[in-house]
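Follow-up to my post from last week.
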Amino acid sequence: MNLKEWIFTTDHKRVGVLYLIGSIAAFVIAGIMALLMRAELSTIGPTITSNPTQYNVWLYTHGAVMILGFQIPALTGFFANYCIPLMIGAKDVAFPRVNALSVWLFYVGVILACLTFFIPDPPDVMWTGYPPYSTITTGNTAMYSFTVLILGFASIIGGVNFLTTVAYMRAPGLKLSKLNIFVWCTLGAFILQLIFVPVLGTAVTLISMDKYLGTNFFDPTKGGDVLTYQNLFWFYSHPAVYVIFLPFIGVVFEIIAAHAKNMVFNYKMVVYGGIGGIVVMSGEVWIHHLYVSGMADWLRIGQMVTTLLISIPVGLMMIGLIGTLYKSSIAFTTPMMYALGVVFLFLIGGLTGIPLALPSLTIAVSDTYYVVGHFHYVMAVAGTFAIFGGVYHWFPKVTGRMYNEFWGKVGFWITFVGVNIVFWIMMDVGVQGMPRRYYDYAHFPQFEGAHQWMTLGAGILAVGFTIAILNWILGAMKGAPAGDNPWGSPSLEWSTVSPPPHGNWPTPPSVSEDWHPYGFKKA
Amino acid sequence: MHDKLKLATGALATLLLAAPVWASAAAGAVAEGAMVKIKDPAREWDHLWHEVIVDISIIGVLFALVTAWFIWNSRRRPGNEVGASTKLTPAGAVGWVVLPVFVFLSIDLYTAANGWVLWNSYRDVPANRLEVKLEAGMYSWDYTYPNGVRTQNELIVPAGTPVLLRMTSRDTLHSHYIPDFRVKEDSMPGRITYLWFNPTKPGEHIVTCAEYCGVMHGYMAGRLIIKAPEEYAAWMKDEETRLASTVPESAKPAAMPAAATKKSAKSAAKKT
Ligand code: HEM
Ligand SMILES: [Cu+2]
Ligand SMILES: [Cu+2]
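User reply:
Got it. Predicted complex:
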């Protein structure tokens, strides 16, 4: 195995694995930032640093890298790259070289994000980069803009590639009505990326122009408007949560179908009502991030309604998931544990979002730890569990070897306990008034105990994640051979050898009339 | 009137088909809300919050129990080696869309109607109010009373009079958050926003900043001090006398000249 072959590879599977390695590295870095923050917050006053800017830089890196360097690349980089061509019976993607370019850009972006630790004035603008602070800080806002632009561009290229691939390279006989749910979900996510990333690109470019070139897009003293940035930013960043949600719930569908050996419940409802509904509605709810920003009242009320209505497509997808469990045959493997974990975490996260849909309730809890707890449940942790479950699920395909089932479950349970301690308490202190993005909470001494529990919980979940990552590394090096189809799944990716050769199949597959990716049969 | 109209049009336009149901629900709720004489959004907030939390807990527990039951019943065991669910009939497939959509839609509309009523409480300010101007800056809250009296980081108000804050900022974004009164709204340069609350009992409450505004964001706190009306009047009298004796000082313009704002903010950021 030589390094040059890997760096210059155009094979979608290797590109995928490169994405996986990079995004897990990003997860570890951003995770360490989270632990540092939790350590700092464990006592009132300075704990491990006496410099608030240090804390703000950790928080900036944590948020930006978790989203742009970990979740989006892991989901639309690794899973999409590795699984989509295999699931549709294609030899590779439509534009393999463009695919290689996208993973290179991704690494440039991650390296840029990591340089934060080495430059004299690192960015401290939070992952949202709101002006005026981002245009007057001594921190390096350009670094933020370029990181976002490069990672965004990497993702757009991927979008063009995968839409083309699914449109033109499906195996003979593979009708659209037989695509894996994951493929549909990823298509939805890429459609959103193609439409909305340019808006984010505009927003972050304009703040750097304001800061370095003397323009005044967001400076009210010269005719600009600070709210414009927030509108542009969330016009992208709300759909971005569906760019994360759709692929991760797609991964969960694949895991649950395969380990419960059951047909996906009401496939058409999931695809048209769920995925389609989300793609159509995701662009009309961004104002719920601006409920206390001084937006026009009629906009806040209008988007309260659209935000609540999002519960319909999301609810349909949940019914699809839970329905798939009905009359199934569940094996409690490690990937299945993670997938079931997602169902429960997402249930908590989704329901605690309902109060946040109402501007009148949000007026108290906006920008508090309630929001931080809620979005960790619904996106950060649910998404991460889906990613970990997905890596376990396709691990035998990618490496040809088996991970350790015992340690897999140990890791799952430790993490599951840890996240519930941290994020449940977070929501609780938030409702009581603990604001987010605080280096210190000297005027809220009553929360010190809760903060210590959260720090403890963070330590626990870190142990669980570490066990999982070690399990993969050891499994990849010396796990027992897994065979081509350990889960007995008819989905096409399992029909080739593990790991699949360059070109995926010795002879390209074609599918018959009665084949279905979820048509499980008795062994 | 005009604002209400826009509010309604905006909401209704988004709603399209379901508008009639929702409007009538909202109308019912409005009528009920009108019975309450003295508005207190904080109290109403507690009430609605409690109700919504109970509702989502019930939904959550139901979903979780059903899921847990499916999982337990479907564990793989001899005689259950492969899933046995059969393909839905077309009617079944449609039914499984229509039914949940109907349920979710009704919950959504009911919640929206309640949310709208509370929203109106938060936005319709009583006429007999005390109006205070707030200029936020890195890192302080500067209040100006109608008679020109100014305070910093201490908002002193009489019990029994609703208080309206008209807010702006001289540098970055801030958000005037009074947790005990369940209210906040951002203040920002170049725009004026408002919030109001109803202080009923004398006491002290924390005011804290809820929008990341810079390095010392976590330390940007102040106090809301509610005094009995007589005490407030006495305090205000003292302040007025003091103000009168220091005319030259207070004759300075209330806000910095516009052009200077950005520069001073820049140097403020550098200093920290
Ligand atoms: C796994 C353990 C994690 C822990 C212990 C953790 C902890 C935290 C804490 C304590 C904060 C808020 C700090 C503050 O407001 O001062 C935070 C913010 C945040 N976290 Fe996490 N987090 C974790 C995972 C993740 C993941 C997987 C994501 C992926 C999306 C994520 C995304 C974010 C974002 C976007 C913010 C907001 C950043 C901001 O305010 O600008 N976190 N996290
Ligand atoms: Cu959103
Ligand atoms: Cu602040």
